[in-house]
Amino acid sequence: MTVSPLSPERPATPPAAVSSRWQTLALQVVGLLVILGIWWLLTDVLKLYPPYVFPGPKAVWTEISYGLWGNGPQDGKLLSAIGGSLRRVVVGYTIAVLLGTLVGLLLGAWRPLRATVGSYLTGVQSVPSIAFVPFAILFLGLNERAVLFVVILEGFIPVALAVSGALLNVPPALRVAGRTLGAGPLSLTLRVLLPASVPSILTGLRTAWSFAWRALVGGELLIAGSTSLGELLEVGRNTANVALVMATIIIIGIIGGLFDTLLRAAEGRVRSTYGLEVPQ
Amino acid sequence: MTRSSLISLLALTLTTTAAAQDAQTVRLGFFPNLTHAPALVGLQRGTFQKALGKVKLDAKEFVSGTTLTEAFAAGQIDIAYVGPGPAINAAGRGMPLQIVAGASEAGAVLVARKDSGIRSYKDLAGKVVAVPSLGNTQDISLRHILNENSLKSKTDGGNVTITPIAPADVLAAFAGKRVDATLVPEPWGAALEAQGHRVIGTEKTVWREGRYPTTIVIVNAKFAAANPQLVTAFLKAHADTVAFINRSPAAAQAAVNAQLQKLTGTSLDLRVLQRAFARTRFTTALDLAALKEYAALNVEAGYARSAPDLTPFLRK
Fold first, then answer.
1. With bands split at pLDDT 50, 70 and 90, how would you rate the model's confidence at A20?
2. Mean pLDDT, residues A44-55 taken together
3. pLDDT at B291 over 80
4. How far is A71 from chain B (nearest CA, A)?
5. Spatial contact of B220 and B315, defined as CB atoms under 8 Å apart
6. Interchain contact, A142 vs B163, CB within 8 Å
7. DSSP letters along A168-205, please?
């Protein structure tokens, strides 16, 4: 079996790591139960707050269960909202990744572009995506496209910066080796530079996901009128249904965290494949 | 969380939940709309302040029932002029409120953009319709109109997009063709009509032949229990104001315009104001049957799982 210098065999997970993983999981479960317990104590038991200000876990669970698998006429709203938001974020994120990769490649390849556009991108990234909503509405109308615009704008910058940064940080030895072995500019980029920058690009993809997800919910909240988690937040707020607001926030957090965990796992796998993770 | 912030948080909860004993101020919530004319006229003519005597009147304007209900929930408003939609939702969530009087009836119209091609309710299919805010009185009415015409909102799997836009911003949204139609309370309907847009649902065809409450008066139940005489005094001033509006509409319109000028920096064309007035009825009567129907429509619109029994919320 030949091993390419860029992909050494994955080191096997040592048994100690397995047991510590279970320990972490157990701790997380205990932590969650403690938080739920405190919440229940403050609301349902001590009644420190009226339910229309801070509802208890039971009320929120009612909203979650009806919203996800209830079968009444207005149930299942959370489920359809999750569907709508996920569809939107997948489209937006995909476009953001493609666009970001393209811009990143151009930035990595061309210094004048890096000096001008590259520095602006960092500036644009520091502006919260919500700030672009009025623009998006004016140019694209009160619709899907305006929400997507905000998501793409927020998502493509981390990808572009990660790709261009990664290309610049490829060890010079690899470039030289590639050229010596007869690679032209295109095949050097595609077959040496990009594969070598995969780990840093993955980090950029993960950042882009969390940015895109946040931008999406913010955009939906302001550009209501579609089936989405943002709209549910608005409806909950408008109908004095704080339990629905909290249920929606919890769902938004779970989805965001879930995808982040998946991307983190992929990232860790790739990093250890690339020999960047030292086994503890 | 540090100990001091915990203590201040506890103090805050205690102060907001404690009943206001012998209030020094009455905090009144209302919107700068024509359907809230009793509030505007009462403020402009000083009727409320006169009735409260030494107790200071602190009037706060809100954009929609949503923000007003939030302030109400946080215990920052004692008496409020509000639409039945938010009031019924607040009651359904157990907020301590009492519905004490009616203020205005009808006064909501469905206006279509002049070049939208919408001539009847049926034409709303596939269009974007604005309401002041999701879950407010007009939104609930609109969803009922859609139901009656076998249409559905996008959220319910249909093709009508219902989007929340403040009535004052609808003019610009029409100009930018971002919205095709809107269901708004007066004076916004008359203002849009003056710009050449088409009224496709008059105040009478929107719902119940125009016999529906658009604004009612609610009080915080804790405040009412602690200050019954203040509530009585306020309600008398409210009734006097409604009588004045019906007796001398011209003077009332001038008062409304002066108050709108103060609050929003813009006043309305007199003809717009007259038309809006003609579509709105001012009364202190509470149409309980209509309120109950609203509660049912609220369930139909998907904003509540059940209609609350309003009897405990009505002032004995």
1. confident
2. 85
3. yes
4. 12
5. no
6. yes
7. HTS-HHHHHHHHHTT--HHHHIIIIIHHHHHHHHHHHH
